[in-house]
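Submission sheet (multi-component)
Chains listed below:
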Amino acid sequence: MILCVLTARPSYSRIQAALEALRPYPVSVLCVGAAAHPRYGNVSAQVQADGFPVLTLPGIWDDNHPGGMVQMVGHLTLALGQELRRLQPEAVITIADRYETLATAMAASYQGLPLIHVQGGEVSGNIDDKVRKANSALADLHLTATAMAGARVRSMGVRGQVHVTGCPSIDLALRVEDGDVALPGIGPEVDTRQPFLLVLHHPVTDEWQSAEQQTRVLLDAVMDTGLPTIWGWPNVDAGAAGVEKVLRVAHETEAPIRFVRHVAPADFIRLMRRCAAMVGNSSALIREGSALGTKALLLGRRQQGRECGPNVTWWDREPTAAAIERVVQQPRPEPVTLYGDGQAGPRMAEVIQAWLRRKAA
Amino acid sequence: MILCVLTARPSYSRIQAALEALRPYPVSVLCVGAAAHPRYGNVSAQVQADGFPVLTLPGIWDDNHPGGMVQMVGHLTLALGQELRRLQPEAVITIADRYETLATAMAASYQGLPLIHVQGGEVSGNIDDKVRKANSALADLHLTATAMAGARVRSMGVRGQVHVTGCPSIDLALRVEDGDVALPGIGPEVDTRQPFLLVLHHPVTDEWQSAEQQTRVLLDAVMDTGLPTIWGWPNVDAGAAGVEKVLRVAHETEAPIRFVRHVAPADFIRLMRRCAAMVGNSSALIREGSALGTKALLLGRRQQGRECGPNVTWWDREPTAAAIERVVQQPRPEPVTLYGDGQAGPRMAEVIQAWLRRKAA
Amino acid sequence: MILCVLTARPSYSRIQAALEALRPYPVSVLCVGAAAHPRYGNVSAQVQADGFPVLTLPGIWDDNHPGGMVQMVGHLTLALGQELRRLQPEAVITIADRYETLATAMAASYQGLPLIHVQGGEVSGNIDDKVRKANSALADLHLTATAMAGARVRSMGVRGQVHVTGCPSIDLALRVEDGDVALPGIGPEVDTRQPFLLVLHHPVTDEWQSAEQQTRVLLDAVMDTGLPTIWGWPNVDAGAAGVEKVLRVAHETEAPIRFVRHVAPADFIRLMRRCAAMVGNSSALIREGSALGTKALLLGRRQQGRECGPNVTWWDREPTAAAIERVVQQPRPEPVTLYGDGQAGPRMAEVIQAWLRRKAA
Amino acid sequence: MILCVLTARPSYSRIQAALEALRPYPVSVLCVGAAAHPRYGNVSAQVQADGFPVLTLPGIWDDNHPGGMVQMVGHLTLALGQELRRLQPEAVITIADRYETLATAMAASYQGLPLIHVQGGEVSGNIDDKVRKANSALADLHLTATAMAGARVRSMGVRGQVHVTGCPSIDLALRVEDGDVALPGIGPEVDTRQPFLLVLHHPVTDEWQSAEQQTRVLLDAVMDTGLPTIWGWPNVDAGAAGVEKVLRVAHETEAPIRFVRHVAPADFIRLMRRCAAMVGNSSALIREGSALGTKALLLGRRQQGRECGPNVTWWDREPTAAAIERVVQQPRPEPVTLYGDGQAGPRMAEVIQAWLRRKAA
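Outcome: structure written.
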């Protein structure tokens, strides 16, 4: 049995197409922390609906301080160590770079369970950049989204094979067609047939103390543009309490913004297809954005160093409202295959199965 | 305050000369796990005797299974996260590659405490090789023992500066002069003025289930040589229970071998200077051995890939007793400066202080 | 140094008067979990303002399931064990019966640190009843609020002395004079000079799955009475997510209710003095309510078995709105000294100091 | 499924006869900590041989300090919380009073899993006495060994039924007939057909710092008697390191004593039947001793307050060697049914099944 560990909702769209392609090979999904928590979108329900056996280790450490990340990863290490020792999967898949993922990587590699890491070799700011490299260091099979990422993993001198497969999130994005979206959340309705902004801005854990202030500035800028706005709720990371406070106050004081916690992945792609521009620091601006040709204004240092397509404009010290308006005025960029051509899932499935066959031989 | 975290006794000799050279800059040493446990040499007492303020988080997870390494590192992550959050040191030093060290690396880096990693960029077998790379991935300043190690860390694309300083353990080794040793331990006395073997063989955590058998084979070979033998007790790692059982039975049945748990570092160097040959898989054979010109027969895959001086002979499928005798017959090799010229401590202290000054500026 | 461990905000008012009376004896307060979390009223700030040295172990395990209580208490046991081992206080105070308190009791008693338990011997529903008894089992000095509670602790055959001191929360309540309150929170203003309801209803952890439904019924009943209402936010316990959802929706749909998260303790007493009636399952209805003569309608099984004064009416299957109205119509009951005469703090301080003197002798 | 949690080897003989009598009702045994560790007798192998499904959570926290008991119980609370949440047994059985047992009691009771406590209501010294009471506080069904123990549990005001069933260890003891024993261990052989001493002395956790000294005194006394001696290895508790050191040195210096780690339960009963006297502080002296009529000299405060039959002599300040000799000279006492008549197992099984039926109804 191959066990895929999810630590947060967005990770699922980065692997789902590969898990589907692996069938009928037995695959289970273990949802831990935020990935099994109703307040953070409980992706386990969706995984189950997609027909994969689901296990959960629920609960998150709630502590608005970077020290809380250490407690959470320690807790998860104990829990995953116990669960993997019991399950003895023939391989464990871990995805990307959230701080919790090192718990998966240690729980597998220390016990000699083969570890597959997806999305190594990319570059970003934040602690994520270090965690991603540490995951590569511990993994035995490396499946990267871009050619440059593959080259970076190889130059680390890692154990095991490195394959450039593209990112399965692009498979999903290209499958979803345009359509109307019934928006969840609170605040005024937004007519997605008219120009609107889509904001996705997470606290940066190594700047967590300024997250509240950053959000306040961004909120003002967005309101200055006068455009209808859909604003996604931030991740549960150090600094989130400050961000949430700003957003709650904005809602209480009737800011003309639609706040949404969890949008179904397909609906999120539809919003990305239709919006006048995305604004924020989520990797979706870069990743799915490049494949969809979504104009995007990228803020801050969270994604610093990540390979971008022509859809991305980096904020460069001009007033944010003006920067947003400039991006909105740009012509629509061409979609590019930088992060995948839509066939990453089948490609990953093939590599994994060949690798398992060789190990068994 | 700079905080140096020790997870096992041997780590101390790999940093002691640097800590001394840092004075009068405030340095504290936090001894965790085996480094604070009487059964494993409680290095904290020695650190205190050397005049450094010592903190401890004692206790080890005793579970003769690789899954126990996961529980221990999870436990330490919680404990170190709590302690570092309280102490808020201006930098944290972590050493080498034991599996526990990732707890230190996460506890510091996740909280934004600057992390100094010593001994990155080397290559070995075992899980250590992965852990060492993961430590490099999380660290902000990298102090390597060899030029090749420095080049490897740089090619990982790590954050922060990389400096080749040499290993402080060589500073210590070159300071110690020849002399008699009052041997601790159990079993017959060994006259160190006559030819004798010095065995240091640890369980290999990814081959832990064969550790007992490996030890039995080695024990027979050593006894076949007929040479008086001093045998060091193994590390507390998965597989240790089997190894210890073999050694205890050997002692009960009056094998002509002196078993020693903890030799004072200076005395250990004296034994290395005098022995006819070292046998085993400890990195001391390679590291201090290269600087002292100690003939060494290296067994198994634990050190696979590590840069070696001319003092090392790799076992190559011949009967082990014959291999030992062949090594004993070799002429004494020249000492080399591969792992340091004896000035690593002062060099590290200088680099660290300059780096802290720049951060403060 | 005497160390008082707080696990939740309300515990502080149950000990504050005793800590004040202990001065100038050195007393420190260690705030853990919800007691150090901004979202749950961060009582540590108030403790500090009162001039006590404060230590914190922040963070709570967020998992809307009773299994999360186990994870939290396990986590706290590790953290408190480490912190108490470092601090070596001469005595540790733990209060009442929340599930987290067993972590304090184990961390102290297992290490031989003398443990003082406050509020033993009472009876209630919920897991609290068992935890309170287990705390008594582990403690070395027992300070109870009522005579009957003292008798119950004695009949357990516990180690150490049992003293009936009264509850320091009554000291505080009797000190606070009537006055206007500037209400925090969200929703319509409430004129506290006119009749209003004060609701305080927590999820019952052994009925956590029906907490959401219970809250919905109570909300409807309160709105049926047509009285202005101030509603306190529930504790962070299993079931809280469902309760919070109901309250949030009520607010979104403009229920005429003032929702308040944290009221300053003195202001809360003022609200209790003025309200037409309290409704819910908080022990404040019974405890401070008896001393203030606050009419109270007690719901459910959370307080089942607790000694009550004449101010309490137990709900008995009639429609809740009618029950509330009936209580509101009652004449104001006489205050009674069931839970204390206002001198519990000095009495506790005296007992503790005599006990410490005897131990030292 | 009923889940019985074992934390140490001796617990198994205190429940085995009941588990057998419960068949064919589905019963599983979860061995944690020392109960799953080869060095401490790994009782899980024997449970499996007896035909019960076995689960394990192996590993122990090795830290010769009472603070280590806190770390171990915290660790077990996390692990058992996770495992019980997954298993959802219809009832959980916990036995006696070791400090680890509170982890089982919290993991079950906090999650609303019905908890059966065996051996409540007894009295002893040590932290065990407090833990036993705390277990009673958290349990829902109480099965006691003696009538007085049952009365004590009732007077605690615990939830749930209390039944006096006797102790299943007596069922086992009475089943075993006299016979020769092939002694495991190290040291000289002992002819069990000639008079010999049987020593079983554990460190007292609240006197852990004097455990080494206590052992040294006892060792001298035993050797002064000149009687052949079989000495059982102590439990893994705070203070054990000092005790083990004394015993190891005694063996190294050829003390005429047979040291045994784990004797099969039936063989242990045979030794109890034949020995001239037992010496130490184990509850076996009192429990099985009373049923077998084994002369016993009870030392120290570990069992202080426990009900004893006529076979027990309490040490009372005379020189220990003289006290031993006096006990050896006594006539053989009559066996008594204080701790059971040999039918405790079937009685417990009946009570448990009736209780489960009522809960299901």
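Remark: DSSP finds 14 helices and 14 strands in chain A.
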